[in-house]
Amino acid sequence: MNELLYGVAYYDEYMPTERLETDIAMMKAAGINLVRIAESTWSTHEPQNGVFDFTSVDRVLDAMYEAGIKVIVGTPTYAVPTWMVREHPEVLAETPKGLGRYGARQIMDITSPVYLFYAERIIRKLIGRVCAHPAVIGYQIDNETKHYHTSGPNVQLRFVKYVREKFGTLERLNKEFGLDYWSNRINSWEDFPSVVGTINGSLGAEFARFQRGLVTEFLAWQAAIVGEYKQPGQFVTHNFDFEWRGYSFGVQPDVNHLEASKSIDIAGVDIYHPSQADLTGKEIAFGGDSTRSLKGANYFVLETQAQAFPDWTPYPGQLRLQAFSHVASGANMVEYWHWHSIHNSFETYWKGLLSHDLGPNPTYNEAKTVGADFRRLSPQLANLRKTNRAAVLVSNEAYTAMEWFPLPGRKFNYNDVVRLMYDALYELNIECDVINASEAALDKYDLLVVPALYAAPDELLARLNEYVHNGGHVVYTFKSGFTNDNVQVRSVTQPGMLSEACGIQYSQFVEPNNVTLKGDPFEVGAEHNQVHTWMELIEPTTAEVLAWYDHPHWGSYAAVTENRYGQGKATYIGCFPSAAVASKVLERAAKAAGLWGADQENQFPLIVKSGVNDNGRTVRFYFNYSDASRSFVYPRQEGRELLAGDSVATGQRIELARWGFVIIEEG
Amino acid sequence: MNELLYGVAYYDEYMPTERLETDIAMMKAAGINLVRIAESTWSTHEPQNGVFDFTSVDRVLDAMYEAGIKVIVGTPTYAVPTWMVREHPEVLAETPKGLGRYGARQIMDITSPVYLFYAERIIRKLIGRVCAHPAVIGYQIDNETKHYHTSGPNVQLRFVKYVREKFGTLERLNKEFGLDYWSNRINSWEDFPSVVGTINGSLGAEFARFQRGLVTEFLAWQAAIVGEYKQPGQFVTHNFDFEWRGYSFGVQPDVNHLEASKSIDIAGVDIYHPSQADLTGKEIAFGGDSTRSLKGANYFVLETQAQAFPDWTPYPGQLRLQAFSHVASGANMVEYWHWHSIHNSFETYWKGLLSHDLGPNPTYNEAKTVGADFRRLSPQLANLRKTNRAAVLVSNEAYTAMEWFPLPGRKFNYNDVVRLMYDALYELNIECDVINASEAALDKYDLLVVPALYAAPDELLARLNEYVHNGGHVVYTFKSGFTNDNVQVRSVTQPGMLSEACGIQYSQFVEPNNVTLKGDPFEVGAEHNQVHTWMELIEPTTAEVLAWYDHPHWGSYAAVTENRYGQGKATYIGCFPSAAVASKVLERAAKAAGLWGADQENQFPLIVKSGVNDNGRTVRFYFNYSDASRSFVYPRQEGRELLAGDSVATGQRIELARWGFVIIEEG
Amino acid sequence: MNELLYGVAYYDEYMPTERLETDIAMMKAAGINLVRIAESTWSTHEPQNGVFDFTSVDRVLDAMYEAGIKVIVGTPTYAVPTWMVREHPEVLAETPKGLGRYGARQIMDITSPVYLFYAERIIRKLIGRVCAHPAVIGYQIDNETKHYHTSGPNVQLRFVKYVREKFGTLERLNKEFGLDYWSNRINSWEDFPSVVGTINGSLGAEFARFQRGLVTEFLAWQAAIVGEYKQPGQFVTHNFDFEWRGYSFGVQPDVNHLEASKSIDIAGVDIYHPSQADLTGKEIAFGGDSTRSLKGANYFVLETQAQAFPDWTPYPGQLRLQAFSHVASGANMVEYWHWHSIHNSFETYWKGLLSHDLGPNPTYNEAKTVGADFRRLSPQLANLRKTNRAAVLVSNEAYTAMEWFPLPGRKFNYNDVVRLMYDALYELNIECDVINASEAALDKYDLLVVPALYAAPDELLARLNEYVHNGGHVVYTFKSGFTNDNVQVRSVTQPGMLSEACGIQYSQFVEPNNVTLKGDPFEVGAEHNQVHTWMELIEPTTAEVLAWYDHPHWGSYAAVTENRYGQGKATYIGCFPSAAVASKVLERAAKAAGLWGADQENQFPLIVKSGVNDNGRTVRFYFNYSDASRSFVYPRQEGRELLAGDSVATGQRIELARWGFVIIEEG
């Protein structure tokens, strides 16, 4: 990749009138150099079983090539045609809600051989046709793939074989999952009940893991088929996404991104986020750090918002800020979903770069400046290498287990704890990786943040203890270490094996009600000194207590502790603290880990990111994530501000407009 | 009609003990001169398949006739007997929620030939039996008919034929509905999926229109059967109802009242409304204006509340106020649902004129005064003719389309916009018609108010532009003109063709967050100067801007505009304003349209209505919709106050008790 | 019984490692002298159809016997094994939600002969095996039995036969239930529709009564089987439970406790309650008074919380307070659910006396003191006899009827009214029985409190009138007497036959909105003088009015009245009052009934309970239900404080620590 890609998803098929020439002219004017096509329109490309029509693909490829716009072709397998469902209703996934209904996308059983047969055929027809076309630079397999909760009898059958393979005997399964409880014990494989109604969290979590495995398997199967056609220089990618709360919030429950990404060449991602006054850059950073960490390499933002919804239509300047924030996190592509707003159906109000009138508008006009800057600054900004010394360790298994055993009140889930910690790092300008719990190479980090690692195998806890012993720094939150990989609560003093490195123990936990940290030890003020939702009654063994609870009966228990263990240190937060307290604890840990420096002279909303470019030069971004102008003193080596071209001296005061930013290449 | 009808729904069948004689004596004492019977008790009249028993009908008819009380006989088809469901479970409507269950009323498939066979038989048996009885003055067909969401395979099949008839080719259907999107394209009629699961709003809205057509068809079928028996002087009516929010709120989503009313002789309506401190008369006026406008004639209030629920039990005086408010809107009948409170089942707490003890009570006692006044004043108050110069244009299509594409937050729907505008007119004492979007004769109005006309054919928008060009005044709200009749967003600058008459354009819209109108241009005060939920970023072309947004980024866009176009004027409200702002905009438009006069010297809670009676004299009603006494200066020609019989001079100050009113006949 | 039993539910089957010896040693150290076993683990005891394995039962019985710990053996019938559901899916109850799914407990059709066959076999196998074991003192049949909403075709068929048996003719059924309404009339038994969809509250309530009968029948069937094995001195018990609101709130809707308890020897109960700052003792008292009243005898607390949830983990002292509160209500057993916390599945966070680490912890340590005191004080505290002069009369029928006809807003149900009145008595230290509406012996009480007796047969109302006439005192609340046993509203002036004793009548009722009691007649202050939710417009006939409504239109109606009738008095509360007003009304009634005395010198949070022990001595408990220390003047005869052994003089001031208590044996 020798340039930044600035793209849009493009649907010639949806256009109300013939527009291809006009669209391309407008794209060129905006610096768009990439389009993604074909991933949503199976029913157009195969109007009847075995009848194919790639007219719209052919004409778009030819026109884009002529215009010098690169193309990613998507396999159109995430939305099935009506004829398939009419012929074979069984391709619809049976879920805990019952049999499926035709209408929405992503409703099929991704294990159905009927579906797989037709999917393979359309993939081979389409990819075989386009792979030699000079416009095509790569492929997106499927789209935001998940398992869609498929759990019909065929899936249950595979699951039974899977657990038999994994556990060997029912005796072991019954023991690990505690199935004697409430007479759930299974004494013969034939008796295995559908998991749909289970009240056993161990069994339910195992099924969720199995379902995530189906996604991994499905993507690997698609990647292998596409791989047969892939030409030298072409890539296969996929657009992963996140827990959806109306925007991209946290760890995706239904996919193990690390496992699923192994079959693709370049990790891709969809990132949608609040905007206007609520734009913070946090989701851009979290999504980027997560995706970059999958392969330790630059990644594609395959979808992000242009205008989208009424509350996401960007303020002037925000579209630019967002685009360069992606690049600063290591993205080599920023692609909007989508080019033009759609005139019918479900996503009519999910607007693209063009409004429904398909003419220029303020957002499109701002995109033109992004496109120009991407083109001009590609030599300096493409392929940014990032080497972070901090990481946040996340876990699908912990997420699922905490869904089965939710925090009191069900107001917060696993991802709220992840984001509490991640966001605190972000606001402190401590750039980090977001790594999977199965990640082996911990040693390259000086600081690990481990939120709510509620379910984890002994092996992982041992590895984390060893990491500390060897000089690493870990900050754990409450709930970590509580259950094993089978969501069985450890029958030792908590937090299980982590007690050793953390120098603490507890056997009781309560729900705080008007509880604060005694004496406001982190000096955050009364408003931020409250703990909520969860508090463990911690007794230090070797740990130093950083905060005690202020409570008439539980004032003798610790809330936050720190322990020297071997060459390193382990911090433990035994309650759900405020963001301010989380920040102070991380500040202390980061200082101890040697991670406190020039970047920390500024904090959110002034965000600092950096990387090393192909020329070996460090590039530093300073973003103003606020609606007021703001200045800062540049603390680094002298360099050149890339947007304006001015040279910048160490110690120079730099002004940032509201939602503005500068990019400084050192040296 | 030469008298006001004062009626009750009467169910001899429900009585705990023999009461007919007592009931009639109490009715006579209260001036009740009409009862409606038989519409709810099919299982009593046909206890077994083909076995008929009209004992209760016969005896009630005879007794009522003897007492001089007129009778409307209802066809008992809205609640099916147990034997029918046992014999033919398929008469229950299959809906998106699944197969039906016996229990409630209005659960059948109104297209089922089994149901239609039995319904026709009971109608012919009942109406054939009673039509010559001298007590019978007319018939109510069915009861609050709707389609009950019937959508089983038989209905889907008819729908496919209907769309084929309407659109001709799938090519056109796919294009108009945008079915390429998410692979929803239908390439063969056999592949047409059930609409139940669709995510395509165009398809869904078409199905809703088709379902409304089933209601029109069903009522026409019943009216034709009853018509075979109808004697000279007898009428067929039906009780339409409204969007139900615990009371009659707005446009009925599931019935096209205008189309459905074509097969009946006199339009009828059910109006239920808040009471006690929340009584405003708004629902009485909205329901009355809507129903009167169906045929441009007097109408029947076939159901309204006597005591009803604990929170609706009227304060002293309110029952009178309500009854005469109906008459002032052009009703020739006020009928309570129902005579006596029921001692079992679902509507036990929906009390009638009598409480469960079946004796006199304060509400019944107040009804006696209404009955006496109705009888005495019928010559002056029956057949009031109303000629309004303003109208509110409403649309089932806009309602449905906005259900598919709801306002952000889903707190407000189409009817909230309708009522925002209607209620403002009501409070200003600008009487109006409520007309259907397909209404051709716009020229008779000086002022049209068009709330949220979100879906409309080009033809209608052209007609509205022409109306303005010819000298009419229109006030539009946001969302008008946005999509066509197929709920396809127009691909021109918004508000589509309305841009021409309104002199504005916009291509972006956002969700306001703490946005006001710059400088409080309508002088409504800070509290009322906020806009909420929706704001279009309007640029005037030829329009004058009445209000700008106050916003750090969007302050250059217009919120409310006014444009001279030809001989008329078009006002456009681009955001969801407060009631106070809506009122000010309407005041300005009304003044421009020459609609500001003596009635506007008073405003809500002092409500003014008027009409011309059979003697050609103007009758004016002044209602005090408040819990405090109130006075006003009578601004019209001298006349006679009909209740007290006093003469009234121009300029005379008149006192109104709390919840009181006067009726003045001019001349 | 010559000792207090201090027990735990024990599940050897759930233990992660071999622990029996350790567990028993820890039990002994805590004074545990009872365990309940086997009621949850059918799948362990019968791993395959007809294959039995009672290893864990045998070894636990032997080990417990050796340790001197008594055992209650439960029949394991409330949770069915997987093999049964695989072989016979029809054992799962079909409910209004559809067919059942395997997974949770209590999902079977308790009328299924398949289920009953297997249940009988396991009962005979298990109980036959253990009945002669010297450790076994009794049996718990099933567990918290309810009908689980079973309502499939077989249950419907039985129900039709049941109503035919009860009503004789459809004519009578149609009349009593008002089935003419909405064409629900049933004219042939074959047409009887499934009750699942009914909108007729009379029919629905009858079905609920029928379903409660199924529970009675099921428990009698089990008790008879177990009775065949029961040895002299052994007992059969069952753990009844309550309306569940996250804790034991009020009358159990699905079981008629009085009827169901007839087949067992000793009434048992499960009581769970809020804790920490929310601990009041109210649920302990309500549950105890309810259960003791079933047989007029001491009862077992078969389940109550040790630590349970994060918000229930007791403050220091609370476990003791709770245990002795049970005893003070007449419990002869306090048994925790359960011994050890479970490491998997649904109730992982419902912790036992031991935490998941299975070691000592603060709660366990406090239990040790309870066990020691129970052992030491058994001669003084076992078999306490309680003779209360007040009673609260409750009714399953009233509960169900008020579910069908809920209070406006649905915020409060029948049990809220029950608890309003019960809690007021509790706070006044007026100990009471909680008796079933069918209880014949009312004369033994001086004061009856009758909350919301919404459905009741004439016979009961007559009996209540007679009770007053003979000198009794009754306090009724609103809604009492309104409908008969068939939930048919009485067609006389309300409150029906109660009018006579209460000296009042009303025919209208409204929903209060900012309504107070005129002049604050109970001197409770503005905050507590509001009425809410419901107000009846009462006119006194012979009654004295204790409070009038303050309302601009309804100020002439009474809110609270009192009437002398014969030798007694009837008080009627016509609205939903504050707790403060309810307390004042009850205080007045208690004084009139001669129930005001020394115990009333203190009020909640200082709670007084008493009873007479086997030595014929009165034992008085003074509990401090608050987080602050508190003192009181001892007003009774001199005696000995049993915990400390100190003698106590009349008039002596006694200090109570926060959550502390004393027990004084008089004489």
TrEMBL record, chains A, B, C:
GO BP terms in the entry: carbohydrate metabolic process
Pfam families recorded: Glyco_hydro_42, Glyco_hydro_42M
InterPro entries: Beta_galactosidase_Trimer, Class_I_gatase-like, GH, Glyco_hydro_42, Glyco_hydro_42_N
UniProtKB keywords: Glycosidase, Hydrolase, Metal-binding, Zinc
Active site residues according to the UniProt entry: 144, 303
Gene Ontology molecular function, alphabetical: beta-galactosidase activity; metal ion binding
Every Glycoside hydrolase family 42 N-terminal domain range: 10-376
Top-level enzyme category: hydrolase
Catalytic reaction(s) noted: Hydrolysis of terminal non-reducing beta-D-galactose residues in beta-D-galactosides
Keyword Hydrolase appears in the UniProt entry: yes
Beta-galactosidase trimerisation domain ranges (all copies): 389-595
GO CC entries: beta-galactosidase complex
EC number(s) stated in the UniProt entry for this protein: 3.2.1.23
Residues that hold substrate according to the record: 105, 143, 312
Domain of life: Bacteria
Protein family according to the UniProt entry: Belongs to the glycosyl hydrolase 42 family.
Protein name: Beta-galactosidase
Organism annotation: Paenibacillus phyllosphaerae
